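Notes to self, TAXI family TRAP transporter solute-binding subunit:
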Amino acid sequence: MKWVAAAAAFAAMTGLALAQQPTFFRIGTGGTAGTYYPVGGLIANAISGHGDKGVPGLVATAVASNGSVANVNAIESGSMESGFSQSDVAFWAYTGTGLYDGKAKVEDLRIIANLYPETIHLVASKASGIKSVADLKGKRVALDEPGSGTLVDARIVLSAFGLTEKDIKPEYLKPGPASDRLRDGALDAFFFVGGYPTGAISELASSTAIELVPITGPEVDKMLAQYKFFAKDKVPADTYKGVAATDTISVNAQWVTSAKQPDDLIYNIVKVLWNKDSRAALDAGHAKGKLITLDNATNGLGIPLHPGAERFYKEAGVLK
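result:
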């Protein structure tokens, strides 16, 4: 009977070990100088299990990436469990349109939560004399890296004003390196899509005379009618040092995952995301954190919610 007792003890120990195995959950974000990365860190810390907080056994991490497109592709391939994406990129991926025209649809893409508006920044040095999108012709302009949602939107904005990359001197840089080059006089302007204020632009404005270029006018009105995921937006005065209030446009930042992720896991993650401890962390951790609210979590989705998330939102009364 000793071997029976030993086997039972071993089974119990093995079961305990299995029960204690952590569940890893990566959140693809963006460049470290943008908004996705710090917000992703806040959310990862809030949902990770530690003490009596978070999802028990969950180890969530924010991973720097090239942004929306790269995150969607990583979710599709299984190299990331989740990630942040602009609403336009998520819609295109799911429907096989726009940027994903001619590519296989990412049919398993699902939403965990809508997060906050992402503002399209067009940052220019005052010395460049750039006052409108049309003024970018012939200028040195950074459009962000391939795989980023910023690059996609920058191309749409240029096109609205009758411009292509052939009409400018394009560079493909994240906002951090682009800021450095603009500060050094090696760049005239750069695009960045993200929640304001973003660290790289705040730092740049503290040492360099910059302007936000308005993205407005009849060209933009026509563009908004064509691309429903854009909305009018305004960056308030002095969001960045010495920069006046600027009319522009925005898309939504969304937290997306795969339909293959377990329903109970996503349900528990969403439940913790909207508890009082997470609320306090979001409010205190980043200017955009205050805009991440349960009331807005199911607005402007464009693609289906993950069933686990949908279950929570129905229980919470924000979905019927």
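- Residues 2-19 form the longest helix (18 residues).
- The beta strands are 23-28, 58-63, 82-86, 109-125, 140-142, 169-171, 189-194, 210-212, 231-235, 246-258.
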